[in-house]
Amino acid sequence: MNKLQNCVMNMDFRKAARRFIIAALLIVILGGIVVGATLKTQIQEAITYHQTYDNGIDREASQVQAQTESDERDRYAGENHGMVHENENDGFLHSAQITEPSTGAKIVLGVYGLLCLLIGVFYWLLIAAWLYQAAEKCAMNGLLWAVLGIFFNLAAVLAFVLLRSRKAICPDCGRRQDAAEYCRSCGAAMRRKCSACGALTDIRDAYCSQCGISLKQESQGKTK
User: Fold this and answer.
1) For 192, which DSSP code?
2) Of 32, 62, 36, nearest to 47 (Cα)?
3) What's the pLDDT tens digit per position in 37-91?
4) At how many degrees (to 10) do helices 142-152 and 154-164 cross?
5) Residue 174, by phi and psi: left (phi above 0), alpha (psi -120 to 50) or beta?
6) What are the angstrom distances between the C-alpha of 90 and each of 50, 53, 60, 98, 138?
7) Is this prediction's pTM over 0.70?
8) Could you tell me the residue ranges of all domains in the chain?
9) H or E stretch including 202?
10) How far apart are CA 196 and CA 3, in angstroms?
C-alpha cells in the first residue's frame, strides 16, 4: 500500500496525461482502421441495405402522399372510394442478407472493444489518482477525493478545483494550504502584520486591507 501511495505521490500527471492521450488516439484510430478493413464486406452490405431501405421508405411516403391527396379530392367531390394501400416494403428488414463475419474478424472486433474498455478504465483511475495526489498536497483528505473521483469523475474534479482555489498559496514553494503565518512545507512566511493597524495580511499584498497603508514601502524600509 505504501509503495502504491509513493508511486501516486511521485507521479508526473502532466506527462502521464500527454502519453495517455497519444496512446488512446493511436489505439482508437488505428484500431478503427483495422476493424473497418476486416469488416469491409459487412459494412458495404449494410450501406447498400440502408440505401435500398431508405429508397423504399421514400417511395412509400410518396405513394401515401399521393393517396392522401386523392382521398381529399374524392371527399370534396362527394365520392367515397375505398382504396387499400399496399406496403411494398413489408418484411423488407427481414429480407436483408448480410454476410456473417469470419472468426478472425470477430476476434479483431473483440480485441478492439477490450482495448477501448481498458482506455476508459485507465482514464477513470488516472483521474482518481490525480485527485489523491492533489488533495494530499493541499492537506486535504486524499483517499476521500480519490473515492469521489471513482464515482463522480469530472464532477469530483470540478468540485475539488473550486475548493482548492480557496486555499492560500505559498509564495516560495507554491503549495496550497489553509491560511497560516508560515508554510507547512517549506517554512516560508505567508502572512505578516501591518505595522500601522496590526492586521494580518497576505505576504503578497501590496496594501493593507484594513487601513490601506502601503505594505511594499514598509517592507522596503525594513530591508534598508
Assistant:
1) E
2) 36
3) 999 988 888 888 777 766 655 555 556 555 665 566 566 555 444 444 444 434 4
4) 140
5) left
6) 15, 11, 11, 18, 66
7) no
8) 2-39+101-166, 176-223
9) strand 200-202
10) 51
